[in-house]
Write a structure and sequence with these properties.
The protein is mostly helical and about 120 residues long. It is built from five helices and two strands; from the N terminus they run H-H-H-H-H-E-E. Helix 2 crosses helix 5. It is elongated. Pfam families: DUF2695.
Length: about 120
C-alpha cells in the first residue's frame, strides 16, 4: 500500500518531468527538440513533436506527416534530417509565433536533394 509520502513523491516527479518537456512560450519546434533531447533520450517516436504540437500548434494536424516526409520518423531524426542548425549554438530560441511549427531563424529546413 502506498503511503502519503510515496504519493507526494510520485506526484512531484511526474510534475517535474512534465515541466521539463513542456514547450516554453515563444519557443520554436526545432529549439524545443534540441533543448529537451539534451535531457530526455529519444524513444524512437515523435512523442516530443506531438507534445509541442498539442501545446503550441494544435491545428497543425499534418505535422507528423511533414516531418516523416523529410526523414524525421522520431524526434532525434527531426534534428538530423529535417532541421539543421545554422550554428553550433542554438540558444536562446529566436522565437516562433503561437500556432506555428516553423523553426526560428537559427535553423535551416532541409529539402529533398540537400547534401550533407
Amino acid at each position: 500500500m502506498e503511503s502519503a509520502i510515496d504519493i507526494q513523491a510520485e506526484t512531484f516527479v511526474r510534475d517535474l518531468a512534465a515541466a521539463i518537456v513542456a514547450p516554453r512560450e515563444g519557443e520554436c519546434l526545432a529549439c524545443y527538440l534540441d533543448r529537451v533531447l539534451r535531457d530526455a533520450p529519444c524513444d524512437g517516436s515523435l512523442r516530443l513533436s506531438r507534445t509541442y504540437r498539442d501545446a503550441r500548434a494544435p491545428r497543425a494536424v499534418a505535422l507528423e506527416d511533414r516531418l516523416q516526409d523529410g526523414g524525421g520518423f522520431c524526434d532525434c531524426e527531426v534534428l538530423m534530417n529535417v532541421y539543421w542548425s545554422k550554428t553550433d549554438e542554438v540558444k536562446p530560441c529566436h522565437g516562433a509565433r503561437r500556432g506555428s511549427t516553423k523553426p526560428c531563424d537559427l535553423w535551416y529546413r532541409r529539402t529533398r536533394g540537400d547534401r550533407w
